[in-house]
Design a protein that fits this description.
Elements (H helix, E strand, L loop, with lengths): L1 E7 L4 E8 L2 E5 L6 H9 L3 E6 L11 H8 L2 E4 L11 E2 L5 E4 L2 E7 L8 E6 L5 E7 L22 H16 L7 E4 L17 E2 H7 L9 H9 L9 H10 L4 H8 L2 E2 L1 H10 L3 E4 L3 H6 L6 E2 L6 H8 L7 E4 L5 H9 L6 E5 L2 H7 L9 E2 L1 H10 L4 E4 L3 H6 L6 E2 L5 H4 L9 E4 L4 H12 L5 E4 L2 H8 L15
Parallel strand pairs: 3-4, 4-5, 5-6, 10-11, 13-17, 14-15, 14-16, 16-17, 18-22, 19-20, 19-21, 21-22
Antiparallel strand pairs: 1-2, 2-3, 7-8, 8-9, 9-10, 11-12
Helix pairs in contact: 3-5, 7-11
Length: 474
Amino acid sequence: MKVEQIYTGCLAQGAYYIESNGEAAIIDPLREVQPYIDMAKKRGAKIKYIFETHFHADFVSGHVDLAKKTGATIVYGPTKMKTGFEALIGEDGQIFELGEAKVKLIHTPGHTMESSCFLLIDEKGKEKAIFTGDTLFIGDVGRPDLAQHVIADLTEEKLAGYLFDSLRNKIMPLSDDLIVYPAHGAGSACGKNLSKETSDTLGNQKKTNYALNPNLTKEQFIKELLTGLTTPPSYFPKNVLMNIQGYESIDEVLEKGTKALSVNAFDVVANETSALILDTRSATDFAKGFIPNSINIGIDGSFAVWVGTLIPDIKQEILIVADKGREQEVVTRLARVGYDNAIGYLEGGFEAWKASGKEIDTIPTVSAEQLAEIRAKNPNINILDVRKASEYYSEHVIDAINAPLDYINDSMVLVDKKKTYYVHCAGGYRSMTFVSILKARGYENLVNVDGGFSAIKNSGKFKVSDYVCPTTML
């Protein structure tokens, strides 16, 4: 029997490959399914099942394409939802034969009503591992406030109560030596405080995970679970619906999105459509020159999450500017969160645009040392901190204004177009995204701080606050 975790850092998501005696199963596959098919083929195995722990919100699963290409059966836990594709709706306790191994479905409502875990039993009948989806993370559990965005009467309090019962009655009685394989790790918005570890024993989780504390009453559990939850990204409900109803084939999405457009063709499409120009190069390269009105979300970061947070319309047509050779990667990572309407990329990248003599724009940038010199001459300069409110209140430059990128429409209200602002985040990724979006909306007096708060603090030239308890947070 083989078990392999396939972890994708930018989504903090774990998919799983299980194999026994020539039969394989994939748990919570990503949108691009060819790697799973290739893995099984290389090992001489046939993919028999696609186990889905729930209707995912933070990414579009590859279940539909994988089933079409392999003939595998899609399996969900008990649900009244009608899917737009053929699926087996399993029962609590149902056993699925996989080669000489077995997989047991354990219905664990709470994160969502259909949420289920899959218990792996080896060829000798020993329970070896449990794939917990968003029911149980390492150090945390799944947030219970997502399903209500799709089904209104499923309140977060009601779901939190269901999750308490699922954990106490279905998970905690299991053996301590079980390996827990969750769907997400640190960085995911599906929980509050996930560990960087991506697996652990259930016994250790019983000792260290607050949610498995046997002394917590249901009321205490609900209060603890709901305290500190932030608003989930706006694309989550849209991804849920795609996962329930089905979607366009990834092959068609890639074919459409990786269409090479010459400089002139790119310019024509940009002017004749409502397409958004998305520049995925590094913040440093973008600052030196970019196509006017394009926005920067760098591919080498939490790209998909920021796309989903900052581009409100999941059906938005997108034109891509990318580093050479990374165009398909960009289209794939857009599709992972349901942005299927990339309509082409700039052939030759920004350098081709620049060489053609067409108009370009730049973002002024200063180092932390230069910012200190500017502030020494004018102590009243405006410093804009676009980190999350929790980061800001933990530690920030005295008198800096907090304008979180993840609430950019609210944050824009804090910016006066007539004034100059020096913008920073933690390291420079988010601040460039913030500046590019505002610049595209007519804000011309924004200066990016290279290296962000880290460079500012390390310069030793700024007074940094200790923790301040917030009264209000964006």
